[in-house]
Amino acid sequence: MADLLVVGSVALDTVETPFGKVREVLGGAATYFSYAASFFTPVHLVGVVGEDFPEEHLRLLKDRGVDLAGLQVARGRTFRWTGQYGYDLNEARTLDTQLNVFADFRPAVTADLRGVPFLFLANIDPEIQLDVLRQMRARPRLVALDTMNFWIQGKRQALLRVLAEVDVVTINDGEARQLAQEPNLVKAARAIAAMGPKTVVVKRGEYGALMIADGSFFIVPAYPLESVYDPTGAGDTFAGGFMGHLAAQDRVDGATMRRALVYGSVMASFTVEDFSLNRLIRLAPAEISERFAEFQDLMRLPV
Ligand code: AMP
After folding, report:
1. Which residue CA neighbors atom 21 of ligand 1 most closely?
2. CA nearest neighbour of 63 among 79, 47, 39
3. First-residue to last-residue Cα distance in the chain
């Protein structure tokens, strides 16, 4: 079992879906990621919150064993994101992004974390992602990165710089097309691989995920759910299951990557069943293995 380090947003989210609205609830890419990954392996979080960040949220992460030594509390307001989904839950519409304490955040990776072998650069300013990568003592065994339209549009050059140095990128379909400037998803994934990462994982919401690794494809479905309330955090939870499994196995070979992709789908399928992290908070470890077995059944092709 190997340790996992994540840098990314820790947020207060305001979200509206056709099924309800929540205000200033716990969110953020690193939050969903670390909570999900904590079911698999020890996780360390690097990020920043403001003085207004509720203590109970910190307790929630600590109770799952997430190491928050690298989470700074800075003077100012916590990062805030406001998003909306229509009946097509696959596409979030960002109504407002307030970087607040993330605007001048300088991450500090402590000496004891600079040798962590699995690193996830969750969705945040690509300059911060690069800064963390540069602070690692040795090149981690596996570096994965996630990003979104806000940064593809606003910080493209910095994003291309960090992309050139990672092994895996996880990205949703719309953003893959935007990053590659290519409407065909297969061509887009290949174009992103040409930017640096050997493995590209394209998240396709209710249609599952597609992985291209060294030129070969693997596809995993999404769990067929009848009650999807809020897709926020699905992508980060997916990455948490994916990286969590790789780190827990301490392996990065093709077969382990494929199983990790299914664990990603398993974890994401829970997150969307409720707002914020509510479903993950109620999640029992046994449910993960049960749903993994259901996936194996779903994906079985009789001969
Ligand atoms: P996803 O897994 O893609 O649904 O990510 C949802 C999370 O991303 C939310 O909890 C937001 O707080 C966070 N988020 C939204 N916009 C940004 C941004 N520009 N940078 C970092 N995190 C963001």
Report:
1. 124
2. 39
3. 35
Strands 118-121 and 93-98: what pairing? unpaired
CATH classification at residue 95 = 3.40.1190.20
Residue nearest ligand 1's atom 18 by CA: 124
Does the C-beta of 81 come closer than 6 Å to ligand 1? yes
Contact 217, 211 (CB under 8 A): yes
The total of structural domains in the chain comes to 1
Which residues are registered as beta bridge partners of 210?
202, 219
268, exposed or middle or buried, with CB in 10 Å at 0-12, 13-18, 19+? buried
Which atom of ligand 1 lies closest to the CA of 80?
12
User: pTM, whole model, 2 decimals?
Assistant: 0.97
The answer to whether 144 touches 40, Cβ cutoff 8 Å, is no
Distance from the alpha carbon of residue 168 to the mean position of ligand 1, in angstroms? 19
Average pLDDT of the chain is 96
Q: By residue range, what is the domain housing residue 169? A: 4-299
The 10s digit of each residue's pLDDT in 69-111 is 999 999 999 999 999 999 888 888 999 999 999 999 999 999 9
Packing angle of the helix pair 254-271, 29-37 (nearest 10 deg): 110
Q: Are 14 and 81 in contact (CB under 8 A)?
A: yes
Task: Please indicate whether residue 235, judged by its CB atom, sits closer than 6 Å to ligand 1.
Answer: yes
